[in-house]
Write a structure and sequence with these properties.
Elements lengths: L3 H26 L4 H12 L26 H17 L3 H6 L1 H26 L4 H12 L3 H8 L4 H26 L8 H37 L2 H21 L4 H13 L4 H25 L3 H6 L1 H25 L5 H10 L5 H12 L5 H16 L1 H24 L7 E4 L3 H12 L4 E5 L2 H9 L4 E3 L18 E4 L4 H14 L5 E5 L2 H10 L3 E4 H16 L4 H23 L7 H9 L4
Parallel strand pairs: 1-2, 1-4, 2-3, 4-5, 5-6
Helix pairs in contact: 1-2, 2-12, 3-7, 3-11, 3-12, 5-6, 5-8, 5-14, 6-16, 7-8, 8-9, 8-15, 8-16, 9-10, 9-11, 10-11, 10-12, 14-15, 14-17, 15-18, 16-17, 18-20, 21-22, 22-24, 23-24
Subcellular location: Endomembrane system
Protein name: Sodium:proton exchanger
Organism: Sphingopyxis macrogoltabida
């Protein structure tokens, strides 16, 4: 017979899974971040939402969750799986490259942020120094569970955020032990217990790393031979659970074990298969955690204390954003726009803030009312994290546009002008930069411009569809102009205008096919490159070689196809010469070479 407890757990699981099935597609349809949706669902089905009405309407028990503690295990497992998936995207080599950011900027961000917040709490509140600085450190922590899914780990923003978050996760255990040692009822064994935990943690992490190095390839090799995806999934979950339990057993956070498990699998040749199989769990794991955050929002308390709560949230966000952005900027690690974006992204408190608050309460450093107030501040901060990320992105974009426009005015003469900075324009600029040729690129998408500038490319914002926009680029002194836009009508119009105004300017244009190339030549292009031609020829070449055809006949066939294409373009474009890149080079260099 199924017990009432088991029925409750099954019901809670159904509520969580049902929420995920509704929130993810619904918010994706309206292009909204599902983070807010999950938090709102937690608020709706939680104890301060519909859950508070179960006494009057018993049937609501089937679609609500009575308390956040009931899904605490699900939420913790969700964070563990999320950190595991993040570890899969990394490597030990990359972590070693980030060591200065982790132990330099990461330590400074946590220490300085905690110091400023603690001092403010000490001056403004009725708290002891231990309680004030304990709260300061707790609030200085940032959310790994929210920040990394938003920023990733490979971009400039994600790289900086991940480095600081990694240090915070490593520092969590010492923070908890120090707070316990500051308790009025603490014994003198706290320092010894901390040292014991640290050396045991080092041994466990080293043991997991060494064991994973030798055992994981063999485990996943057996799963690969069985050709059973379920076996891959079972092996992956086994590894992450064992690693999380091992670190938790010695007092470390299970988050550390989950991240380590992901890193160990990432070093094997099976990491792509594991990443693909476990990918669906990533969004669900984040959703479970966010639902628990929403359940922590008590609407009655928020309504009663909203002025104080707003003041506290704003104060924490401002302090953390300024400290993080200033450290990144003055250290010279990232550009100004990136520093501002990371600062706002990291400005909210963290899910680990709740753990530290619980420790401080248990150590009798703070009262229950104080703990509940800052738990609400933390939950509200987590809720607005996606909004802060959006604001930070917009601010970074404006900063990059403003600073980039000033820099682009100093671009030397004799440059190549690239119109459009998509896939093709990016490749052209990368090769020009590699060979030391000056260039400037323009694009009408400000997000593309900002992202390219963060990567060090000379890109300006300009809508070439507007009359006179190209005149500001100094085309009269340019050596060539490259048109890479994906708009054939606009390319033809711009080619005609440029040829009329600059008769000797080499105009190299991307073309869709032979017909488009012929039209571009008629409009005055020096050279038009059909993008479908080369990709088709490379694909055909690969197929023929894999089928065993000799290289000589394959190359001859490709030359024949190119000759037919040139002849087709000549006929359609009414040209008196074969279209050749060499002709463009003669214009650009002034020589026949």
């Amino acid at each position: 017979m199924v017990s009432e407890t088991e029925t409750s757990l099954i019901g809670d699981a159904l509520v969580v899974l049902g929420a995920a099935g509704i929130v993810i597609p619904a918010f994706a349809r309206f292009r909204l971040p599902p983070v807010i949706g999950f938090i709102l669902v937690g608020l709706l089905v939680g104890p301060s939402g519909l859950g508070s009405l179960t006494g009057d309407y018993p049937w609501l028990r089937h679609v609500t969750i009575g308390s956040a503690e009931e899904i605490a295990l699900f939420a913790e497992l969700g964070i563990v799986l999320l950190l595991f998936s993040i570890g899969l995207e990394l490597s030990f080599r990359r972590l070693w490259q980030l060591r200065k950011l982790v132990f330099g900027i990461g330590a400074a961000e946590l220490g300085l942020g905690g110091l400023i917040l603690g001092t403010a709490l000490l001056l403004l509140g009725d708290l002891s120094p231990a309680a004030a600085y304990g709260l300061g450190i707790a609030l200085a922590l940032s959310s790994t569970a929210l920040v990394l899914p938003i920023a990733g780990t490979k971009s400039a923003v994600g790289k900086s955020a991940f480095s600081m978050l990694l240090f915070e996760d490593l520092a969590l255990v010492p923070i908890i032990f120090i707070l316990a040692a500051l308790s009025p009822t603490a014994s003198g064994d706290s320092a010894e217990l901390l040292l014991t935990t640290l050396w045991q943690g080092v041994v466990v992490v080293a043991g997991l790393a060494i064991g994973g190095w030798f055992l994981l390839p063999k485990i996943f090799a057996q799963a690969a031979r069985a050709k059973d995806p379920e076996l891959f999934l079972a092996a992956s979950l086994l590894v992450v659970i064992v690693a999380a339990l091992a670190t938790a057993a010695v007092g470390l956070s299970p988050i550390v074990g989950a991240l380590l498990a992901g890193l160990m699998i990432a070093e094997t040749e099976y990491h792509e298969e594991v990443e693909a199989i476990t990918a669906p769990f990533k969004g669900l794991a984040l959703g479970v955690f966010l639902i628990s955050v929403g359940m922590g929002l008590n609407l009655k308390t928020i309504a009663a204390l909203w002025p104080q709560l707003i003041g506290a949230v704003v104060g924490v966000v401002v302090v953390k954003a300024v400290v993080t952005a200033a450290l990144l900027r003055f250290s010279g690690v990232v550009r100004r726009g990136t520093a501002a974006e990371v600062g706002l992204l990291m400005a909210s408190p963290s899910e680990t803030t709740l753990i530290v608050l619980a420790t401080a309460l248990q150590a009798q450093l703070i009262s229950r009312d104080t703990a509940e107030f800052w738990q609400l501040v933390t939950a509200i901060g987590l809720t607005i994290t996606p909004l802060l990320a959006r604001v930070g992105h917009d601010i970074a974009r404006r900063i990059e546009l403003r600073t980039g426009d000033a820099q682009s005015e100093e671009t030397p003469e004799g440059r190549t002008v690239i119109v459009g900075f998509g896939r093709v324009g990016h490749t052209v600029a990368e090769l020009l930069r590699e060979h030391g040729r000056p260039y400037v690129a323009v694009d009408a998408d400000i997000d593309t411009v900002a992202a390219a500038r963060r990567d060090g490319f000379a890109v300006r914002f300009a809508d070439v569809a507007r009359s006179g926009s190209l005149d500001k680029l100094g085309i009269e002194n340019a050596k060539a102009i490259v048109l890479t836009m994906d708009d054939p009508v606009q390319q033809l119009r711009m080619t005609r205008q440029l040829r009329q105004k600059y008769p000797e300017l080499p105009i190299i244009s991307r073309a869709r096919d032979a017909d488009h190339a012929a039209a571009l030549y008629q409009a005055g292009a020096s050279d038009a490159v059909p993008e479908t031609l080369e990709s088709s020829l490379q694909l055909a070449e690969a197929v023929l070689i894999d089928l065993g055809v000799a290289m000589g006949p394959v190359i001859a066939s490709i030359h024949d196809v190119r000759a037919k294409m040139r002849q087709d373009i000549m006929t359609k474009g009414k040209l008196d010469h074969e279209p050749r890149i060499r002709r463009t080079r003669r214009h650009a260099t002034g020589s026949d070479s």
